[in-house]
């Protein structure tokens, strides 16, 4: 599994891009600041108004304003600035600068659940979950920046197709040598392993809409998870195929009882009940300011990341994806930023990739 790790540390965009540039004279970072409005002269963006503590300030732009607030904040800020569905804006008393109905719509995410199996051998990370074990991991990482503290332990992944007629994989697996939840509160009481599994291309669509004109008021966020019947079909396939994978001979020396969902969860009805109870977000919100052509009434930015119908305003983050990627979002979002940087600097784009990819010859008629 690809990871964004350097020298044993999670290597964020801040570490990779921002911190090395902090000494530049042309960079100023305002901390503890809340952007409240994009400033316009007609349809040309000229700056941003923001709050720093209780003080209202303005930053003026000589060239462009670039939003990278993400798929929740970007549509919120655009709407607060008068960019979005005119009816929604007028209902809140916001002056319409530009009617753009796609702002805040098309919101997408990845859902997943944990399929947990007890391990019959004491070889999992459960051995390290006590105070002594955690202390040893921390000490080694602190001194050497390696060991069990230098990875997220998702070392193995997989992508498969859920059924015949799917041209390329639509299910992703993360394998973890521990039975636990993301927040650490759901640690199993025994050695175990698990797969995080979920569909990659959900057909459900949500939205981000304003509650009020107050920028400090969180927006209404509605993902409409599992609102399309195909999502249920794919989730059921996720469970059944994972159970089949863990039943393979290679797992015989390690496979114990099925901790979750449990062997009795085997009908569409019991699987659906399990999904309703246990499914979680993979924290991949995206697509709420989708990229498209000027002929697409739901598009928000054009192929160069400029907001359609306005001047000197761009969006560069995962919100501009037209549809969610078949995989995790961190690397694709960094790629979007690199592409946006090329456009901003006026660089010619590199040649389109000619890399080959695998397509099963029998994908129309077989699942494998």
Give the total of domains: 2
Termini gap = 22 Å
Please estimate the helix content: 10-25%
Share of β-strand residues: 15-25%
In sequence order, what are the helices and strands, one letter per element? EEHEEEEHEHEEEHEEEEEHEHEEH
CATH architecture of the largest domain: 3-Layer(bba) Sandwich
Low-confidence runs: none
Oligomer: single chain
Q: Output the radius of gyration.
A: 23 Å
Name the CATH superfamily assignment of the largest domain.
FAD/NAD(P)-binding domain
Mean pLDDT: 96
* Biggest sheet layout: 6 strands, antiparallel
The computed structural class is: alpha+beta
CATH topology of the largest domain: FAD/NAD(P)-binding domain
Looking at the structure, what is the overall shape?
globular
User: What is the strand tally?
Assistant: 18
Count up the helices: 7
The CATH class of the largest domain, by name, is Alpha Beta
Task: Itemize the secondary structure elements and their pairings.
Elements: E1 5-6, E2 9-10, H1 13-21, E3 33-41, E4 44-52, E5 55-60, E6 65-67, H2 70-80, E7 83-84, H3 86-91, E8 98-99, E9 105-107, E10 111-119, H4 131-144, E11 156-160, E12 171-176, E13 192-199, E14 206-209, E15 220-222, H5 229-246, E16 255-260, H6 268-278, E17 280-281, E18 313-315, H7 330-345
Parallel strand pairs: 6-18, 7-8
Antiparallel strand pairs: 1-2, 3-4, 4-5, 9-14, 10-13, 10-16, 10-17, 11-12, 12-13, 14-15
